[in-house]
Amino acid sequence: MRFSILGETLARHDDGTEVPLGGPARRALLTLLLVRPREVVAAERLADELAPDGTMSAHALQSQVSRLRAALGPAVIERAGAGYRAAVDPEDVDAGRFERLAREGRAALAADDPVRAVELLRGALELWRGPALADLAHLTEGDTARAAAVRLEELRLGAVEDRIEAELRLGGHRDAVAELRELTGRHPLRERLAALLIRALSAEGGQAEALAAYEETRGRLADELGSDPSAELVALHRELLDFDPSPAQVRPPAQLTSFVGRSGEVAEVAGMLRLARLVTLVGPGGVGKTRLSVEAAGAAADDVCFVELASLREGAGLPRAVLAALGLRENGLQLGGGGQGPLERLATALADRALLLVLDNCEHLAEEAAALAGRLLAVCPRLRILATSREPLSVIGEHLWQVRPLDDAAAVRLFTERASAVRRGFTAPPGPGPDQAPGPVERICAALDNLPLAIELAAARLRTMDVEDLAQRLDDRLGLAAARANRGAGERHRTLRAVVAWSWDLLSAQEQRAARRFTVFPAGATAGAALEVCRAGGAGGPGPGAPEAEVLEAEVLESLVDKSLLELTGGRLRMLETIRAYGAERLVEAGEATSAGGAHARYVLELARAAEPHLRGAGQLEWLERMAAGHGDLQAALGWAVGEGRWETALELLAAASAYLWIRGVSGSVAARAAAVLDAVGDAPPAGLGEEFAACVLLAAAAPGGLAAWRRHRERAGRLLAAAWAQDAAGGTGGTGGRYPVLLLVWMMRNAAEADPLDAFALVSAQRGRPEPWVRAVAAYVSGFGPLGAGDPAGAERDFAEAAEGFRAAGDRWGTALVLDALAGMAGARGDRAGAVALTDEALALTERLGALEDSADLLVNRADQLVDGDPAAARADYARAASLARRAGGSAALAAAQRGLGDLALRDGDPAEARRLYEEALERIDPHWVKSAGSRVRALAGLGRVAESHGDRPAARARYTEAAASAAAVVGGATPQALRLLGLPQAVIEVVAAHAP
């Protein structure tokens, strides 16, 4: 016999027939006994629970028990001492089964088995038919009844929470949101439900909604309980605030000191920016252009991107520097760029965006900065640019603001504030009267032409000097500036250089040595990196026989910070460009430029080698961030190696950094130097560096103009890479193989668009026996395309699933996202739309964490393609969001795919004119030679064919279908249904295009 108390109390025979239990009193009595099967309940307690007013006598209770026994059988309810018990197995009571299943489901969730957890928890919750112990609801004064019901309802809600958490882990964010909103409405103070809702909203891309849900919960807790959110909820809130699906856009640097003497200029420059789209702050070095730009940008706009150009040495890298500052990749995870160069990607990303772009220190790249500004302002109507330079950019529409030295009062105030920071209690002596000689502070500022940087360098010396002594030394070195008002920018620049030289000469020999060697870091360094390079940067290196003065200690760097030669911000040491330029001259003068550059290159190489395995594992995000912070160091090290003709070092740097460059999407930034290396070494790389040569060839091909280098060196690179990953003599692949596993995946991707990709396919797929899991996962992924092309989707899916398991086990988000995308396409092709959506959702979460906005846009299009038939509204939202992400990323191919999808919906909605516009715009953005865009191009052409059909223009429709077939054939070698399936096309498109194959 089975019993149910999760709802109305029921008893059923084994055949399912219901046992008549009689009136409410008997149902309530049975319920009380079934709350704890096999446990004795005292008769007195039963009577009190059933009749709290004391009206039930022992005889009346016995009478109810007898009637229950008659209905259920005498063995079900037993007399035990002074009470009764239900002699039934807890598994025969739905509440007992529920508790067991709920426990097992929670254990499965803790063991990270969400599939099993969902199965168990759904089974547990399906046992409920209504409120717990419904037949005791009228017994409001009974402690046993009330406590038991509350306990079961709490367990029920906990099981619901566990089930939702398991479903979220499986990617069910979209379906969970509505249920969680309803549950949080009924339980507004339950923090776990709030956390689950916040996570679901965040996973769906609703960061603003997720933050609003947190604030709503926090407010309720404060208002109704007077308490703060739990530590778990606070941590989740912090995670939301820290999370950005793309690398952070560079904001103007936070300032550590007060801004003196230019508040009026800030307002005027900010006002000028409201009227003009290009404003250039012009003035000599050290006059305060950068600081004024930071303050004016903060007053003029909310959305500001700050691009520091001082460390950039080549004008060709300017568009990439702006892309990096915007937090944008040059290409997606699939490595192709769709034919876009950095400038085209920038123009796409900023086309509709309201942004103030600050270009700081343009003077050494004035011509390139002018060209960039002119191009972007012409095609991005909501963009404004604020530049700083020692000379105008000379662009039509440029407004100039001459930044002049501080006035006398502001200069004295600046000196006093900075001096008091290093010498407590310092105050400037009273200023002179009308007929009195200037005081020491006035003399110092006059000698320094009231230049802010010079004043700050001089004020830092008051730590060890008296103000009169400082004034006298400056008088001796520079002379009083009696005619300062007549000096031009050139004279003022010479004054600044003299102050820097004076400050330098006051350093100890060890401080000078550290300062000049520090100049090899183009954009600053951590203290550890600076010590390592500066110690090894002398002609003889640090070694055990080095003189004592060569052994640099951390205190030396601290002393340089104290003397304002270095700044410490955000955990990194940085040298102002004016001082760095002077120090670099001293480095050459000391004969240490080559040795310090070599020490720096060795440091960068070791860092890249250390990062490489982590970039393919669980530490991927942390090491990507670390390598990105040192991207300028990589460029500088490569520049040194190429400039010195150290081709071995250059090849090693390129190969060691290749995983970072491809996963982060900045491979194009080193393409020019990779091409220079190839020009120098030809097809005969140094012995033992064949794999490095292959990496160099792949990186040289990463730029839009890299096709020539690829064609020239592809065959040789392929042979060298194959030799590095050759099978062992015994015929297996049990050895470790090459040094750079990522090259295998990139080599296959690059060769996939070639007419003869089979050698690359054979090389990579042969690595399935390697000991490293990541390599086996790559081999399984590539192997899956073999059965896919041969018409064996089940075999392909097995290989892809093996690859997904391997990448997940390794912790690699890049590889996992690639494979999940392939698996989602397979699921959609066999009609499993729900499975395809779930896999795409999982891939989306990974691409967002990698900052791969363009790939996220592609995945959203794929998801929309799966949803369009069953939920066109959701598909429309995904296409629109994909278009937004693609614009933000500057990805024209992803934007074209989204426009194609919106065109499909317009045609479905009966608006062929809008569909035609969207299809034609999509085709304008697609590179017809890029394999990844082939599917979008074929679908857009087929869409235009359907538009023509809707107008009754059969010839035009046939022409479009034929063009679609030809486009497909150019990529996959034919327009047969089997070939077209490789492009992921829906069946309807396959049929119409195949029918028009040539």
Task: Describe the model.
- There is one protein chain.
- The chain has a 5-stranded parallel sheet, with helices on both faces. Strands 3-5-4 form a 3-stranded antiparallel sheet.
- 61% of the residues lie in helices and 5% in strands.
- The model is unreliable at 479-489, 540-549 and 728-734 (pLDDT under 50).
- The chain is mainly alpha-helical and 998 residues long.
- It is globular and about 115 Å long.
- The two termini are 72 Å apart.
Mean pLDDT over the residues: 85
- What general form does the structure show? globular
Number of strands: 12
What's the total helix number?
A: 46
Can you give the helix content as a percent range? 55-70%
Question: Order of strands across the biggest sheet?
Answer: 7-8-9-6-10
Distance between the termini: 72 Å
Q: Low-confidence parts lasting 5 or more residues at pLDDT below 50?
A: 479-489, 540-549, 728-734
SS-based class: mainly alpha
What share of residues are in beta strands? under 5%
- Rounded to the nearest angstrom, the radius of gyration is 36 Å
What composes the largest sheet? 5 strands, parallel
Oligomer: single chain
